[in-house]
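Good day; I would like, with your permission, to put a structural problem before you. A protein sequence and the structure tokens that stand for its backbone fold form the material at issue. Thank you for your consideration; the sequence and its tokens are set out here:
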Amino acid sequence: MPKADFFKRFGIYVREHFLSPEQCKRIREEMTSSEVIEPAKVTSKGVDVVRTQSRSTRLVRVSEETWSEIKALMQAQGPDLAEHFGVELNSFETPQYLLYREGDFFYAHTDSSDDPNAHEYIRDRKVSLVLFVNGTSDEPWEGSFGGGELILYGLIEGAAWAGKGFPLEPEEGMLVGFPSDMMHEVNPVTHGERCTVVAWYH
């Protein structure tokens, strides 16, 4: 599976060790023992709906202290992201804490849309962020998960590469940023619980 350096060569923003192991352990424990807010939804014709055949994961709640800490850390990346992607970034969308359990996935999609029926905040998204609170393991191991790879499409230009996605191996504490109009998906989780924080810059 391609490592972070492979994706950096194609313009993906990657910061390894963005969070320390201690921070990850604390947040992971909060997420896996937390109250589930609701099943994560997809947007169809401007309406948010639960559609488990397309997206199976759940939003969870964390403490106010953790929420404020991680929001500030992610939001502080704005200047670096603007320079990296050569875009003007004006606002930051509140992070979501997503818990994927065994069998959970998210089909291929983009985070932004030019559909006039889409929510304004979706049309305005420019950069997507994924923060991995844990990493993968081949066998079940405490604090890790199997499967759940983030697949990114459109990295290589040319007809021969059309529709070809590359799986990014999640690492504990790693922050990944990519254009919000880039097609991506999450493979089904095969064991454990995949803990991520996602956010968007407009």
Q: What stands out?
A: The helical segments are 4-8, 21-32, 64-75, 78-85, 120-123.
